[in-house]
Amino acid sequence: MSDNKTSNDASSTDARRSGADSQAAPRSANPTAPPEAAAAASAPGPKASATERASTDAPSSASNVEPVDVAQARRDDALEDAREARASAASATAAQEASVRGQQRASTPAKPRPSLAENFEAATDAEAASTANAQSASSDSPTGRATVLPPEFTEAPDFGKLNPPPLPSTEQASAQAQPAYLRQSDSAWSVFGRVIAARARQIFDRAGQRMTQRTLRIGVSARIFHPEPGAKGLRGKTLQYLEESIAHWVMSRDVLVFMIPTVGNQGMLHTSNIRLRDYAKHLDGLLLQGGADVSPQSYEEATTRPEWPGDRVRDMYELELLHEFVESGKPVLGVCRGCQLINVAFGGTLYGDIATDVPTAGIHVNEQYDQHRHSIRFPDGSTLINMFPNQREAIVNSIHHQAVKTIGRDLNIEAVSASDGIIEAVRYRKAPFVVGVQWHPEFHRAGGAELLDCTPLLDTFLRVARETRF
Fold it and tell me: Is 278 within the bounds of a domain?
C-alpha cells in the first residue's frame, strides 16, 4: 500500500509538473526564437506583479531577502524608507508563493524580515554605538581632554524634586531692584523732578538759541520838527524823522532800525499806554542821533545867545529814553548831539558856543558842514585804543558849535581835539556800553579814506547789544 501511495504521489507530482509546463508554454509567442530571445521573453517585465516575478523555475530568479541595515535606514530620509518598505513587502509575497510551489526550486532560501520590535532594538543599539564612537573621538582631541557631559544632561530628570534658582546676594538684589540709570536714593518724586528740570533746560536752550539767532533791533531817537507859527501844510505840523545816513550806517551790519517816537498825553490827539520803557524792553540798543542844540535849561544854565535856545522838548524825550535803556542794561551810542546829551544826563555841562566861550579853540563848524574835519587823539586809558589799535590820532569830521564843558559823573574822556583839547568822546563807566562821540561816523565813508573808519565802533556797539539782550 505504501508503494501505491508512493506511486500516486509521484504521478500527482508529474501531473502538476506537466500542468505547469502546459501553462508556461503559451508564454512563448515564437517557438522558433533562439534561446536568448526566449529567456528574455520569459523574464518578468518591470510592470509584472510580485507573483509573476517570483514564479520562475530559474535558480537565478530566486528571491534573496537580506536583513535591513538599521544604520543605513536611519540615515535615509522618509522617502527612501517608504520605497524600501514597498520592496520588502513585494519580496515577502514572492517568497511565500515560491515556498508554496516548491522550496526545492530555489537555490537560496529567503531570509525572514525582522519584526518592528527587532528593528527598534537594532536602532537603539546603533545609536548607542554612535554615541560611544563620538565620545571616544572627543577623547582623542588635540587637547587630550575628554568631553564629559554634566550630570543634569546624562541623568534622568526627577520631576518630584524641587530645584529653585539660587537666591542672589544682597548687592545683586539691590542692583537688580532698579535700573542702572537710577540712584540708590531715588524716589518717584526725585525722578519726576529731574524730568521737569531737563524739560525746562531744553525749553530755555531753545529760547536762547532763538534769541541769539534773532536779528538785532536797534532804536534810533527821533529828530523833532516843531510847527512854525501861522504856517500851513507840513510846516504847521509836528514832524518826527531821522536822517537817512545814520539809519543806513546801522543797517549796513544787517540789523533792523526802528525810529522811536515821542510819547505822552500833552498835545496829543490820541492817547496810548505805550511808554518809552516799553521800547527799552523790546529793543536791543539805542542810538541818539544828531540835530538841534541841547537847551541850556537841561543843564541848568541860562541862555546866553537867543539864537541858540536849543530843543527843550527833545531834551526831555531823549533824556528819559536814555535812562530807560541804561536801567535795562542795553547799550547806548550817542552821535554829536547824542554825546552832549549823555554828558548832560549824568550832571555835566556844555559850552553854549565854542567860538564865544573858548576863544583859543579851533574851528569846529563852518559852511562846509560834513566836509569840515580836524584831528583828534586818544588819551591814555581810552577804550577807543582797543577799537582802533595802532592809532593814537585820527581825522574826523567836525559839525558842532557846542561841546562838553564839565565832565559828568562816572564819565571817562575817550578822545579830545588834537589842537585845542576840546572833548570829542565820553564813556559811562558803570554800564556795559554807553559811549558818545562828537563827530558823525555815518559820514566818514563818503568823506574819503583819510577819515577814521568807524566800523569797529559800530561792531562793538552791536556786539554788546547781542550780549545784553537776554
Answer: yes
